[in-house]
Amino acid sequence: MHKSHGQRIGYLSRMSHRYFSEKLGAMGIGPGQTFILKSLYHEDGVHQESLVDNCQLHKANVARALAKLEENGLVKRESDLNDKRAKLIRLTPKAIEIKDDFFTAFRSWSEMLTQGFTDKEKELSFELLDRMAANVEPYYGDKNN
Question: How far apart are CA 145 and CA 14, in angstroms?
Answer without folding.
Answer: 24
